[in-house]
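Protocol step 6 of 9: fold each sequence in the batch and record its C-alpha cells directly after the sequence line. For illustration, a two-sequence batch is reproduced in full.

Sequence one:
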Amino acid sequence: MTERPLAADPFTTTNGYTLARPPAPPRRRERGPVWNVVLFVLTCFTTLLAGTMFSGSPTFDAYRASREPLTWMLSGVPFAATLLGILVVHEFGHYFTARARGAAVSLPFFIPAPPAIFMAGTLGAIIRMRSSVRDRNALFDIAAAGPLAGLAVALPAALLGLVWSTIVPAPPGPHLVFGESVLTRALVWLRFGTLPDGMLVSTHPMADAAWFGFLVTALNLLPAGQLDGGRIGYALFPRHHGRLGRLTVAALITLGVAVAAVLYVARPEWTSLIPGANWLVLAALIRFALGYGHGPVLDPLEPLTPGRRVVGIACLVLLALMLPPVLIRAD
C-alpha cells in the first residue's frame, strides 16, 4: 500500500517555491486507540451523571422515581447525548479536515470531569497534531472546521430545547442562573418574546447542553496560543499572533475585574466575586499553560484566500456573540 501523502511531503507552492521534506522524527511504536476509547467511555459516564442534575424532560425525568438499580441515571440522557454530540462533531470536524488537508493527527482524547467540579461532566477534548501543516490555508481549514461543525449541532439543539422549555415563576429563594450571551438572549427572545416580570425560562436539558456547547465553542475561539481561535488568528495575522494572544489575556483580565466589580456593588458578598474570578483564572491558564507561541507552517508565504479571511472574521464575531460575560450567577 502506498504511503498517504502528508503535509511534510515535498510540494511546489503557488508562489513557485519547492519545499523539501524535513527530516522525519524518530518513529514511535504504534499504539491502538485504547486510551481514546477509555476516555470517551469515562466521559459518557461523567456527562450522564451531570445530566441527572438537569430536569425538564418529562419522559426522562420519570426515571428518577424508578426503583430499579441505576435506572435513575437514564434521566441524564438528553443532556449527555446532546453535549457529546456537539463535542464529537466538533472534534471529528478537526480530524477529518486535517486528514483531507494532508496533516497527520490523533483521534480525539476526551477529558472526563467529575460533575461536582464541572457541571457539564467534561472539559472537552483535544487532538494531537503529528505533522506540520502545509500552509496558512490548511491551518485555517483545520482550526475553523471544529467550531463551525460543533455550532452546526449546537444551534439546532438549542432551538429544539427551547421549543420544549417553559416559562415558570422565579423561585422565591436563591437559585443558579446560566449567564446570557447575545446569542442565547436572542434565541430566548425569538422563542418567548419579552419575559414578564418575576418569570424565567425553565430550560429543557437539551437547551442546557447547547448552552455548554456554545460556551466550549466560544472558549475555543479565543484568539490565543494554539486554541482554535489562536490558529485562526495565526492564519489571519501571522506576524501579530503573539500580540493577539496578549490582547486576549488583557481583555479577559479586564472582563473579570469589571464583572466582579459590578456584581459586588449589586450584592456586597465575597461570592459575588466568583464570576469575575473565572475569567482571571482563564487568563492565567492561557498565559502560563498555553502561552502565546505557535509553530510555523511549511509554506508561510502562501497567502490566505479572501473567502477564508471573511470566515475568519466571522469566527471572531461568533466569539463575541456566544461568550457570556457572567457564566453562572446566583439570583
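Sequence two, same batch, same settings:
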Amino acid sequence: MAIKLGLRRNIYNLFAMMQGWVSSADLSIFHEFEPPPTGGGHQFLRAFMRQAQLQGFQIENNYLSRATRACLLNSFNFDERRLQLLKRKRVLYVHRVDGPIDVYRGRDDGVDRSIHVVNSNYADRTIFQSSYSLQKHLELGMEFRNPTVIMNAADPDIFHPRDRVAFSCNRKVRLVTASWSSNLNKGASVYQWLDAHLDWDRYEMTFIGQSQIRFKNIHMLPAVDSYKLAKLLREHDIYITASKHDPCSNSLIEALTCGLPAIYLQSGGHPEIVNQAGAGFDAAEQIPKLLDQMIVSYEEYQSLISLPTIEEVSRKYLDVLGLL
C-alpha cells in the first residue's frame, strides 16, 4: 500500500511540475474557491491571501511544493484525497473550522464529525472563528488540536464607510439584510414577520441574496459580487440579521465595516461581533422597539462599531501558521 501511495504521489508531483504548479511558496491554502458571488469563507480567504502576499509571502492553492512551510486547511471545503497524496513532514498544518455546521444547517449530515476526523488526522493547530464555535464543539464532545479563536475581517478596499449615504430621520429609515443561502435557519421566518408587521411608512427594507420566501414589502435583490454588495450596504442605515447558530457571519462583519449598526438575533457569534454597536433580540416582535431605540441614538451606536482589521487578523493567522 505504501509503495502504491508513493508511486501515485510521484506521478502527481510530476504532473504538477509539467503544469507549472510547483513553486517556492511559503503557504498553501487547501480550499476550493468558487467565483463570486459566493459565501463568506471565499471572501475572507481571498482577503487574507492578498494581505499575506502584500507581506511578501508566496501562496499556492491545493498543492504542497518542496518549499512549503505551512498549510491552511479550510473546514471541509477541499479535496482530502489530494492532501493525503501530497502531505509531507516539516509542514505545519492549521485547520480553519466554523460551525458546528450540522447545528447551523438544522440537520445531522455528519459534516461536523467528518471535520473532526480531518482535524485529528492532519491538524497541528486549529483556528475557530468565534468563541461560540469553539464552545459549541466542546459541548458536542469534539476537542480539536491546539485551538485558538480569530474573528474574520472584511477587505477594507471593498467594505468601508467612505461615501456612505448619511443617516436622516427626514426620510424612511433604510434596513438591509443579506444571505447567500436559502436555508430557513438564515432567518426567513423573522423577515417574513417584519414583512407583515413593520410600519412601511417609516421604513424600507432590502433583502440581498436567496430566500425560499417571497416578500410583499421587502425589496428583494439577487446575490451580487462584493463590490456591488458594499455599495448597497453604504446606501442603507441599519443591518438586520436573524440567522441562527451562525458562528461568524461575514455579511454581518461586512455591514458593520461599512458603518451600519446592527439589530441581530442573539444566537451564534453575533453578540461577539456586534458588541455595543447594535442590539440583540430573541423574538421578531422585539425588533420594532429596538429600531426605535437605535434611531434615537443612531450616531452613538455607529460610533461603537469596533472590529479587527484584515491586517490584524492576517497577522494572527500568519503567527499561528508559524510564518512570523
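Proceed to step 7 once all outputs are recorded. Observation for sequence two: Residues 1-22 have pLDDT under 50 and may be disordered.
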